[in-house]
Amino acid sequence: MTHTARRLLTGPLLLAAVCAGFAAPQAASAAATGVATTVKVTGSLKVRSAPSLTARAVGTLRGGDKVTVVCQTAGQKVRGSVRTSAAWDRLGTGRYVSHAYVTTSKKIPVCAAESGAAVPTKAKPATAANAKRFVVGTVKSLEGKVNLRSAPATSGAVLASVNTGRKINLLCKVAGESVTGTVRTTKQWDRTSVGTYISHGFIYSGPLPVCAGAVVSDEPAVTLTPEQFIRASVAGAQRGWREFGVPPSVTIAQAILESGWGRSGLAAVDRNYFGIKCFNGAFGRYADGCHVYNTQECTKAGTCFATTGAFRTYPTMAHSFRDHGSFLRVNPRYAGAFDYTTDANKFIFKIWKAGYATDPNYVTKVTGIMAAWNLYQYDTWK
């Protein structure tokens, strides 16, 4: 499991930074109370600042690395190489790795409730000090209720639900999966006073502070309109044409189709706008890792089935667009398409025929988008 990150540590410095405070020779006290675990991944595993795939990446571990876990807490559900689990393991540095990718022969203790996230067993008398800790929000849902989750994503475990119109105490905000709610479309998720998360797309409230240790999205919280998405895509698509020869109209249309105008989990979390996969753990020059998802594949006969796939993750949208062109150019199976670099329709047909996508209607969908949005105008050879 590897995900979007601003900076990565590698080699000996990486392990020193990630493991500082729980290596046996340097932290006997932590080792005495912690549980020894082994990382089981073919590539690398991101260490995060909170128990969620959307939390800031603060380091990387490799398959076979030995780490000591202090305790375990609930977080975003992850399908990993060992198991599917909503458990996250806290390391001696106060950082987290998904339990879906580690093995141990011992039981890991549950983390004590964190400050500001404890689940109350009895109602406490209201005080001025308590009141200042929270921002009161009002739930608004046309469906009648909204789920409270273990992480800022729809893949997070549902821990409870609240009815529309209910008042709810909110602590702070984090960036997570983009959600279209009754109130707005946004990537903001609000952490409640009991440590659960609710999409801000269903909340009316005053401003919230950013949660400690949370990543702040560098992209607009509100989903781009189709026109805005196209404008944001043109520069990268045309650069892909200049560097690799992929028609810009093809690049933009594929991004629209495969990311749902940037709303898919791949695009929102991993900035992967083209559904490009990892192969045997390799993610190429422009990506920064791989992320395993549940997905659906279709045969050319139209029969679809559930499966899993490892998809590339990128630090920026621009990296994703450049990798799209590079991916097609360096793969011999798509060589025939580059006889048609000035014929967008034939180009997309050739890469589909070579096995780029299994959807039998893929070409029709892509060329339909190209025509409907006049994407041919961005083909720079004209």
TrEMBL record:
<dbReference type="Pfam" id="PF01832">
    <property type="entry name" value="Glucosaminidase"/>
</dbReference>
<dbReference type="InterPro" id="IPR051056">
    <property type="entry name" value="Glycosyl_Hydrolase_73"/>
</dbReference>
<feature type="signal peptide">
    <location>
        <begin position="1"/>
        <end position="30"/>
    </location>
</feature>
<keyword id="KW-0378">Hydrolase</keyword>
<dbReference type="GO" id="GO:0004040">
    <property type="term" value="F:amidase activity"/>
</dbReference>
<protein>
    <recommendedName>
        <fullName>SH3b domain-containing protein</fullName>
    </recommendedName>
</protein>
<keyword id="KW-0732">Signal</keyword>
<dbReference type="InterPro" id="IPR003646">
    <property type="entry name" value="SH3-like_bac-type"/>
</dbReference>
<feature type="domain" description="SH3b">
    <location>
        <begin position="36"/>
        <end position="106"/>
    </location>
</feature>
<dbReference type="InterPro" id="IPR002901">
    <property type="entry name" value="MGlyc_endo_b_GlcNAc-like_dom"/>
</dbReference>
